[in-house]
Amino acid sequence: MSQLGFDEAMNQVLSTLPGVYRSIQGMRLKIARESGVSRNQMDILSTLAVTPAMSVTAMAKALVIAKPNVSLMVNELLEKGFVEKAPDPRDGRVTLFRLSEAGVATRAHLRALISSAFRTALADLTSRELEALKSGMAILSDVVGKVVANPDVEGN
To answer: CA-CA distances (angstroms) from residue 77 to 54, 80, 131?
Structure first.
């Protein structure tokens, strides 16, 4: 690829990502409000769906959210009955949290709402466009992973 083609691709990515991020956050905010949870609480539910038992410290690290904020959100999810707590069998001083049945159902409902929104948006794409989107998303995910893992990038 020529330097011009490289620069054009990089500028396209850098100019498109902020708008995509804002759009996704807007959609997540709307879904969260309709479901009675915050966007960060949605993230906690999704994280616990993938890693079934986590401490507040582990969640804070995984979500890159301050531990006191995660603690507050987890307590709110406890009050709503979406998470359960239990002592860590390896270290009784640590409390682990996992999804309750209501949390599993709520997380499934949130995911269904998001899937429905994307299904509607993708419905008019041709099979060629869908394949290009899948390929582009895989490439973008790989590139972002490299950026995040780069120790020369400030904040890593």
So the answer is: 14, 5, 38
With 0-12 CB in 10 A as exposed, 13-18 as middle and 19+ as buried, what is 38?
middle
pTM confidence score: 0.79
The C-alpha atoms of residue 5 and residue 35 are separated, in whole angstroms, by: 44
DSSP state at residue 125: S
Beta strands in the chain (DSSP E): 83-88, 91-99
- At residue 93, φ and ψ (nearest 5 deg) are -75, -20
Residues with Cβ within 8 Å of residue 103, at least 6 apart in sequence: 45, 48, 77, 81, 82, 83, 84
| Angle separating helix axes 101-122 and 3-35, nearest 10 degrees | 130
Q: Could you give all domains of the chain from N- to C-terminal order, each with its CATH number?
A: 3-146 (1.10.10.10)
Could you report the per-residue pLDDT of 120-141, keeping only the tens digit for each?
999 999 999 999 999 999 999 9
Q: What are phi and psi of 56, to 5 degrees?
A: -60, -40
Would you call 155 helix, strand, or coil by DSSP?
coil
